[in-house]
Amino acid sequence: MDFIVQFHLKKDTLSPMVNFKTNMIEPGYYEDNKFGIRIENLIMCVKSEKYPGYLCFENVTVVPYNRVLIKWNMLTEEEVNQINSYHKKVYDTLKPLLKDDEVTLKYLERECAPYKP
């Protein structure tokens, strides 16, 4: 997405949120002159089923987060639940596509298993 729309060059440009508009969400942490880490997810603005007349974001990205890089003990229960919910969506979306690929399906099962403190 970045290389197509040059997203990083237009950060000062705001555009209205409309149904089916796609955006990037990029939470990250950076240490000057040391390192940085960022998760980039593609999201789509859609009409909310829960709140008629409002828009909400739907995550379009379906790749599990690298569990080794997550400091689980620093997360709130709500944040853990969000990650677990996201991983369930990833698993439910990709499992039918991987039915003939046992190795990748085992990877997906392992990486999308719910975290339990």
Describe this structure in words.
With 117 residues, this protein is an alpha+beta fold. It folds into 2 domains: 1-61, no CATH class; 62-117, no CATH class. It has helices at 2-5, 77-94, 102-112; strands spanning 22-25, 28-31, 35-38, 41-47, 55-59. The strands form 2 sheets. It has a 3-stranded antiparallel β-sheet with strand order 1-4-5, with no helix packed on it.
In short:
With 117 residues, the protein is of the alpha+beta class. It contains three helices and five strands, in the order αβββββαα.
Give me the secondary-structure topology:
Elements: H1 2-5, E1 22-25, E2 28-31, E3 35-38, E4 41-47, E5 55-59, H2 77-94, H3 102-112
Antiparallel strand pairs: 1-4, 2-3, 4-5
Helix pairs in contact: 2-3
How many separate domains make up the residues? 2
Global outline: globular
> What's the Cα radius of gyration?
17 Å
Kindly estimate the percentage of residues that lie in beta strands according to DSSP: 15-25%
As an assembly, this protein is single chain
Give the end-to-end Cα distance, rounded to a whole number of Å: 35 Å
Query: Can you count the beta strands?
Result: 5
What labels would you give this structure?
disordered N terminus
